[in-house]
Design a protein that fits this description.
The structure is a single chain. The protein has 52 residues and is an all-alpha fold. It has a domain of 33 residues. The longest helix has 16 residues. It is extended.
Length: 52
């Protein structure tokens, strides 16, 4: 990475869900007007907060 680059590295992860989990994520996304990615990001954030 060049010196002075202000862009931050954002790691990417892959999550495999079973059919039931995928349907739950899809329902939450539709219900709240979010993308499935946004739902997953929020679920991870809430889960990590619970660990603190």
């Amino acid at each position: 990475m060049p010196i002075g680059n202000t862009r931050h590295y954002m790691p990417e992860y892959t999550l495999e869900c079973d059919d039931q989990q995928a349907q739950q994520v899809q329902r939450l996304a539709v219900r709240h007007g979010l993308t499935e990615r946004e739902v997953l990001e929020q679920l991870v954030a809430v889960g990590l907060e619970e660990l603190d």
